[in-house]
Amino acid sequence: MKILIIYGTYSSGTLMVAEAARDMLTESGHTVTMLRVDSVQGQDIIDHELIIMGSPSWKVFGKQGMPHEWYYGMMERLKGQTFNRKFAVFGLGDESYALVCDSVNHLKGFVQELGGTLIGEPLKIEGFFFNKEQRLRELRDWLPTITS
Ligand SMILES: Cc1cc2nc3c(=O)[nH]c(=O)nc-3n(C[C@H](O)[C@H](O)[C@H](O)COP(=O)(O)O)c2cc1C
Which residue CA neighbors atom 3 of ligand 1 most closely? Predict the structure, then answer.
């Protein structure tokens, strides 16, 4: 399957998860492209069968539990276009915040706005830097649920 992983990151956790997902999916025989969210154009989405969007949860525009702010730029660029594609989402976060890993809910909303179909359950990756091995095992378990 041709898969596009879109990511935004502030402190590199989401990048690390995106890279791990890329490597695991490649191992499973998929063709994977990874793009930072600020560089994504409509054609990138059209060119892939499954689009995985990942983001930290952060304080953006004064609100907690938000996705990386660059997602809003992407949504502005893609405005008015409809993508009949499969999407899956994952979000990083930390339980010390009130809205834990809530970026996934915003990403789900973006999928809807883009006219895509959400595949599988959103993956919430809490406390990545403190439980890396466990969280990567959870990622490995999640990937087949969105690719099969
Ligand atoms: C300023 C700031 C705001 C954050 N806000 C939230 C939040 O609202 N909800 C949450 O679950 N995690 C929150 N986090 C935790 C981050 O989502 C978490 O550290 C994540 O791993 C960061 O991903 P990144 O390294 O890709 O930027 C926040 C962290 C910082 C520093």
Answer: 58
